[in-house]
Amino acid sequence: MATVPLLAQLYTVGSLRNTDDGFRFEVKNRLFDATLHAVERLAVDDVEIGLESVSFVSGDEERSAKDLADGIAFPLRTAIEVRVRGRRLDDGEHSLAITTGTAPFGRLDFEVRDTLASVPAARRAGVPRDRDDDYSNDAISARQRYLEEFSGHRLEHINHYSFDPHVTQGNVESFVGVAQVPIGLAGPLRVRGEHADGEFLIPLATAEGTLVASYNRGMKVLNESGGALCTVQDDCMQRAPVFVFESAREARDFRDWIDAHLNEIAAAAEATTSIGKLLYIDTFLAARFAYLRFNFSTGDAAGQNMVGRATFAACSWIIEQVDTIRRFFLESNFATDKKASQVNIMRTRGKRVTAEATIPRRVLTSIMRVEPESLTFHAGVAGVGSFLAGVNNNGLHSPNGITAMFIATGQDVANVAESSAAVLYTHLLPDDSMYLAITIPSLIVASFGGGTGLATQRECLELLGCYGRGKVLKLAEIVAGVVLAGEISLASAISSLDWVSSHEQYGRNR
Fold this sequence. Notes:
Layout: E1 17-19, E2 22-28, E3 34-44, E4 47-48, E5 54-58, E6 61-64, E7 72-74, E8 79-85, E9 92-103, E10 106-116, H1 137-151, E11 183-193, E12 197-205, H2 211-224, E13 228-239, E14 242-244, H3 248-260, H4 262-270, E15 277-286, E16 289-297, H5 304-321, E17 327-329, H6 342-347, E18 350-359, H7 361-368, H8 372-389, H9 398-409, H10 416-419, E19 423-428, E20 434-443, H11 455-464, H12 472-495, H13 499-506
Parallel strand pairs: 11-13
Antiparallel strand pairs: 1-2, 2-8, 3-4, 3-7, 3-9, 5-6, 5-8, 9-10, 11-12, 13-16, 13-18, 14-16, 14-17, 15-16, 18-20, 19-20
Helix pairs in contact: 2-7, 2-12, 4-5, 9-12
């Protein structure tokens, strides 16, 4: 099997230390629940280590490397300390080569480099942690005191919250308190979707004055026009590994092999999840590289971690089958995680959802004091400006509403980088009404998992009727409707020259 650079992430850099009778280091499972059932090789600085001198420590259990027939559990996020007796190492850099047998990943072979320093350099005491329960009141109080002493500032607000800090485990480390972001209420908004059908009050978490008022104004326009018609058009999440070959010809042949073995690859990927399903794989070739874009459905979770584990399992199976692979990385930057990209606009990441409405002339003139002809002309001019600027959104400010809803409902806010992309279209109809539609091609939302289970975030989702399994498409449709309302409102404010005066009236006082 070829060496897989990704697997070096199992090794905890900086863990190499001498002991009284040898040395030790740590490996941590950052991939997926596994079982370690064999160690075939351990070498340090190209010198083979006899396995009879190697043992593994997990919790209170210590097992010899020669005695792993029944396996040792290696769950996700747990660490195993590897102890080697009989040889101490000199200070400086060392290479470690490890070959192990695991389930479900098979034989893993990787090499890392680490630096051993017998006497760590003096440094300031770090942030306090409690290995037994880092979310206990005692652990949190110790960090709060540390923060006050370090900064010279007494905490008055960060340290006040209304929930059990243990619920944040898996969402944040070194918990010390909360950031209280104001939540405003907009709506009700009438949504006519396939999953969201009715009126919804919208919680918007923001510190930007006029934002809630602006969206509320746009929602009034939509309601007077029959509501926002919302449609989810596609749903998939990606991980994009890259495989390196000796030549472009081998990369091309690998693409054909992938197409012929999609069912087996899907079986390996889906063995790691009860929810995710591999839909298809796009292969893009350049030089001697094959970039594979794995596309999954992920249920009600956003799914980045889910598809990462599933893709890793699939790639482990692929590497075992194909002997022309020279190198492999689980992520090639082609999935464009947390980055805006053209490929996501074209191919979808998360949910592709469109919100549309036909707005009568009387509604625009009476509520917004703007004529549809003016808005349509303005949209054309702004489209040219968008092209000149090279932006990923020819609309006005869809990230405003998306970010405010993401914060309120516990979404990963960094996903706004992808979710900010949008395609706006306007059309003046023969009866002088205006058709308006906005498509969000990479809206990454979840109704279950991640931050959605946190106290206030879950409450906001419950207010929308969008918490739990089976609700993510409903949430996507509501978000799209909110975005459409914001586009109508800001476009009207700019066209009617109300934009600056509204900020002066409702924005923060200077």
